[in-house]
Amino acid sequence: MKAPTDDFIFLPLRSMENYVLEAASNDPREALSRYGYWFNDDWHHLSAKGHAAVAHAIVKTLEGLHLDADEKIRRATLGNWGDGDSCISWYQNGNCPLSRSEGVEVKSIDAGKTKFALEFSSPATIIVTNTFDGVRALQLTYMTTGPAPTIYPVTRVIFPQSENIQPIEIDPTCYEDYGKPVHVTRTTRVAEIPPGETVLHFQPLETKERPFRLTGVSITSLEAPEEISASAMFVALNGG
What we know:
Elements: E1 8-13, E2 18-23, H1 28-35, H2 48-65, H3 69-76, E3 86-89, E4 99-100, E5 106-108, E6 116-120, E7 124-130, E8 136-146, E9 155-158, E10 168-170, E11 182-193, E12 196-204, E13 212-220, E14 227-229
Antiparallel strand pairs: 1-2, 3-13, 4-7, 5-6, 6-13, 7-12, 8-11, 8-13, 9-10, 9-12, 11-14
């Protein structure tokens, strides 16, 4: 379905009743030439003009659906999320509610002071809570850089109060080839945790230019992917 705009189209995904915003051109060079002004210098976040263009397209697309009142109510009702999930991210707002060791602070990690992370300059602990009634996958989101060598230390995560959960080492190197240096997030499954509180102890294994930086935790279905890397559009932070 073409959206009522000259610049791009919304493609409907009927199975999920969602829409994907897709550039009208399949040529990356032409797309960058036409839509480059939609993005900030990091080539990930939208500029003011980009936000305005997307907002305009959403409004026009919704107006073109011509839904009756009952259909609007049905589409506005969210379904369930399978086994349930709980995601906490302080990457964009700096608000981290997790209990943690003294000295583990949320710090700004970019020049514009718009991105934030928990920094582990020395061994320290956080506590996460599985509020569901069954075992869930615990995933950590953290900063990486690439190509190697990374500016962040390999870090071991230990579960001192959980005998059945093995320690895991996190390598904060971005191995994907973006054709340029990148500074991006990665999400990795680190354990399967029971209901209630789980203690995580972070132990940096080397000294690097920056301390290990944690930007979020997720408690998800066991069927969730074991690792999620940043997309090709999610490239270098300014500063850090």
